[in-house]
Amino acid sequence: MTTSGSADLVIVANRLPVDRVTDADGGPGWRRSPGGLVSALEPVMRANDGAWLGWPGGTETDLEPFVEDGLQLVPIGLTAEEVEEHYEGFSNGTLWPLYHDVVAKPEFHREWWDSYVAVNRRFAERAAEVASEGATVWVQDYQMQLVPQMLRELRPDLRIGFYLHIPFPPAELFQQLPWRRQLLEGLLGADLVGFQLPGAAQNFVRLVRQRVGHKTHRDMVYLPDGRTVKAAAFPISIDVDSFAELASSPAVEARAAEIREALGNPSKVFLGIDRLDYTKGIYARLRAYSELVRDGHLDVDDAVFVQVATPSRERVEQYRILRDDIDRLVGRINGDLGRIGRPAISYLHSSYPREEMAALYRAADVMVVTPFRDGMNLVAKEYVACRLDESGALVLSEFAGAAEELKQAWLVNPYDINGMKQALLEAHRAPEKELTRRMRAMRKCVAEHDVTQWASDFLEELAATRPEHGKVVRP
Ligand code: F6P
User: Fold this and answer.
1) Can you list the domains of the chain with their CATH numbers?
2) In the chain, which end has fewer C-beta atoms inside a 10 angstrom radius, N or C?
3) CB 261 within 8 Å of CB 269
4) CA of 145 to the centre of ligand 1 (A)
5) Mutate to test the pocket of ligand 1, among 38, 313, 319, 374 (most ligand atoms within 8 A of CB)
6) Residue 370 near residue 398 (C-beta atoms within 8 A)
7) pTM over 0.90, yes/no
């Protein structure tokens, strides 16, 4: 067993919750990443001597642990080759498309797998060093699926949780993976494996029974050594209060008005905000919208579609191809259908701070979220959280995890272009009363399940596993 460290709660994630920036004095510094995960975990980390292990991005390999804004951060460097093979390769060229319904073709390369194993081992070894005796370790996401088992071998005293932020595919797809058994065994190192949806937990348990041969009953797996592993759903959410507060600020309100003004004060603003990813269905969505304009259901003088596409994983080939495809499509649509100063689509390839996102949400009459497959989709929840006056419509893919909660959205099959066109028109034409009824119900749902609740639900369930284990991390 490795000598133990002092952290009672260790978060293991592919990325650190900070980004590299240049300080005022020109030197390297860090800035907190905007995500909800870190804000949800921050209080529990502070209360439990928490440490967060992750890749700082880039290829710096000699970074020492540091404290940033009271959080203990442990950077784990990746070499250029590991970035290519572990991150861009196995994580985002194999697992990402495979777990998202093979929307793009997953590539299987043995060198990528070897790199994934090596990087997972380094993370597990480092976690074993920083975790105190009997600590809780919470491993995050698909880049780290081997860590639970590797860590358990090094430190059987730990309580280990794993949470998958993306979908977990049905057996028919998962079994394409040449390393399917190793991945399942990796996850089984955890005491609790969390998923976005109950269906994903069921897929996992079924695969464990079929492929690893362990006994299972409902959401429990029984290992030959007497240990049990629980698989359950914990749908993730957002920091609802902070979005609502942001949206209600006079600066955001003024910015929302400015955005509408800059768009030429159309009567309807449609909005899409996504990472530029082929799972998000951006291409099909823009086609559907453009056909409505072409066929005269919408007029560019009166309506505009604002599509924000945040640059992502730009060195992965499928992402480059997608970027070119969208660039061409937007160019063609605007060339064919736009008028001077009135494009059909206002396309922004850029990432924006939360304030600007909140202003966009406030400015948009119809939010369009149409992924082919998405673990949850937090943009849908952010939009709802920012609609303080209960106005606005949400058009949402059935294949986003959020659709299981936001049932009052206009739900669409993103593969069905005509169905999407119909839903866009209905949302666009819906009377105010109808919009309010739907938005009120969705706002209630989002308000009742925020990300802090998500984190404490998971940690409480994890604390309830292995009752013989003495030490408990209090959410
Ligand atoms: O949704 C999965 C996820 O890995 C998130 O955790 C992350 O914010 C996003 O995709 C972007 O991923 P990357 O770390 O590859 O930039």
Assistant:
1) 7-236+455-464 (3.40.50.2000), 240-449 (3.40.50.2000)
2) N
3) no
4) 15
5) 313
6) no
7) yes
